[in-house]
Amino acid sequence: MTYMFRRHFAAGSAVTLLLLLLTIAALPTTVNAQEAMPMDSTYTVGTLANGLTYFIRENQRPENRAALWLAVNAGSILEEDDQQGLAHFLEHMAFNGTRDFEKQELVDYLESIGMRFGPDLNAYTSFDETVYMLEVPTDSLEVLDQALLIMENWASGITLDEEEIEKERGVVLEEMRAGKGAQARVRDKQFPTLLKGSAYPDRIPIGTEEVLSTAPTEAFRRFYERWYRPDNMAVIAVGDFDASDIERRITERFSGIARPESPLDRPDHPIPAHDETLVTVISDPELTSTSFVVYNLFPKRTATTEADNRRAFVEGVYHGMLNLRFAELRQEPDAPFLFAGSGSGSMVRATDAHVQSAQAKEGRVLESLEKVLTEIERVDRFGFTESEIERARTNVLRGLESALAEKDKRPSARHASEALTHFLTGAALPGLEFNVEQARRELPTITIEEVNALARQTTSQGSRVIAVTGPDKEDVTLPTEEELLAVFDTVRADTSIVPWEDNVLEQPLVSERPRLGIVVRERTHPDIGVTEWELRNGVRVVMKPTDFQNDEVLLRAFSPGGTSLADDEAYNTARFATSVVSAGGLADFDPIQLGKALTGKIASASTSVGGFEESVRGRASPEDLETMFQLLYLKFTQPRLDSVRAHVYL
User: Fold this and answer.
1) Is the model's pLDDT at 65 over the cut of 50?
2) Which of 296, 435, 474, 608 has its CA 20 to 30 A from that of 461?
3) Checking DSSP bridges between strand 540-543 and strand 553-560, what pairing results, if any?
4) Does residue 386 sit within a domain?
């Protein structure tokens, strides 16, 4: 059990930005602008007479298991002043006594069928929702029925025993204390500026110590009875079962919950717009790096029509190309930042944001901000190049097609998460096949003019907030609000900005094919499905076909040795050799050119030297297997040492 912030961006959250970008880039597009997106036909969707919604989907990954989720469209933002933290506390109480499971009985039962807190049983509370998640075996109908009974109890039968509440207070207070690390302290100081004018800064899901310590049972019950109502909840069932049978069981189990007489009145809480640029600069002694994030906030855009999805698709292509430019700039010898990224997504339920962020090298946050803003300004003035957008279109389609090839391997929890988003936000859920079909038809129609126009709109849209975080140390001085705002003026006035030059090397990876290898010996092991080959050069190959993934081939090779064989003088050279050499690229291709040469390919290769072995790893889609082997061949025969990039790495 935990509480979460359903917010996609935080200072320095580079990985989150990239993951969000991939999600946006995968959205479908079509020319039928006002036509609503269809519902994925693999789902059975219905609404009971009492207003409860259900989503059911058959899925065999993992086999003989089902993901059963109860979604409550209510989180801490809906708390009253005397309930701060009780949405999350109530989630705890769901495991401490319900109508049919007294006190510890519910947890005891779940553990008796092999479940435990963590991988199989979890719940979370965020600003905007509370979600309970079970993963149960489906080879026993009795267990399946008991799981549905538990979920029905959570929906309408949490007992809120006064004695159990008192016992749980210490658990929740300890969770609050354990969560007061550097990130939480920074977050609590940033939110009043970042979410200015909204109720969110005063509705942190963990709540306040005073309320958690003293809230009466009546305050819990008031929140529970107001928001845990069938027309504000959904049951999501995805797993290895018969969908019609599960629909019957859900209908029988949940139809008995009474629908309140009063209509549901769930308010939205948008972040009010503001004309001025807001700035927050926060230091903390436990932070180890300096980062900035520039947010442009604007009202929520829910993707329901095909026009919505086209807009999101073009937006994702824009961020993808900008991120690749940032990746190139990061490799410059005197680059001021370690990472920079751009993306768009949801801040809170009713507010979205365009975001640019960077992790700066020590003492260089203003330089990093200027570097990022200069690249955005370059795009605003001159746009992207045709070669950049062509690569972006190719990579997006290749990624979608690879995902489609793996559609039957997707875990049930992934499908459940998509249904959850559809229920909570109203975003369309058309299905992967629809996405790929639309992408194949429409990606070629996305023009450079369209992306460039959106780029200019993206930087001018919304209410801007600049958030800077860094260590609280004597030798680290963070910029002032005035210094940060001055960088924007400096970049806008800079007349020296010139168009981007796209550095592409137009030649094959391997210019001359190597000598053909020969298998000198072959052995098979039918009992384990393995074939062994011994090559002329002495390499031993062990090959085993599997059905773990449809669109993936994995390779690992090793030989004994490693850094243990190096003497003291050569140890550091051996330790960092593969990383330094890899930073230079392969053959005639520097790392930037190599990445562009791999456009549309799902293939990678790497080498490493460990303590006791040298190893090689490769991964590829079956159709790109040749490319993976070319990369491996070049790793051995034409490594490229670039002294400038080696200096950057070290």
Assistant:
1) yes
2) 435
3) unpaired
4) yes
Same domain, 223 and 352: no
3-class secondary structure for 30-44?
CCCCCCECCCCCCEE
CA-to-CA dists, residue 567 to 560, 600, 614, angstroms: 16, 43, 16
| 3-class DSSP assignment, residue 7 | coil
Is residue 641 very low, low, confident or very high in pLDDT (cuts 50, 70, 90)?
Answer: confident
Answer yes or no: is 94 within a domain.
yes
Rounded Cα distance, 524 and 530, in Å? 6
C-alpha separations of 201 from 191, 204, 552 in Å: 5, 6, 45
d(CA 635, CA 616): 9
CA dihedral sign of residues 107, 111, 113, 119:
positive
Give bridge partners of residue 280 from the DSSP assignment: 467
State whether 98 and 142 are in the same domain. Answer: yes
> In b/e form, how buried is each residue of 133-163, taking b as 16+ CB within 10 angstroms?
bbbbbbeeeebbebbbbbbbbbbbbbbbbee
Domain of 390, in residue numbers: 278-401+431-493
Are 87 and 188 contained in the same domain?
A: yes
* pLDDT of 490: 98
What's the pTM? 0.90
**Per-residue model confidence as pLDDT tens digits over 500-513:** 999 999 999 999 98
Q: What is the tens place of the pLDDT at every residue in 596-637?
A: 999 999 999 999 999 999 999 999 999 999 999 999 999 999
Q: Which region among 31-35, 191-195, 315-319, 499-503 has the lowest average model confidence (pLDDT)?
A: 31-35
Tell me how many domains the chain contains: 3
Q: Are residues 487 and 614 in the same domain?
A: no
Same domain, 573 and 636: yes
What's the rounded Cα separation, in Å, for the pair 617 and 604?
A: 8
CATH number of the domain enclosing 323 = 3.30.830.10
CA distance 571 to 534: 32
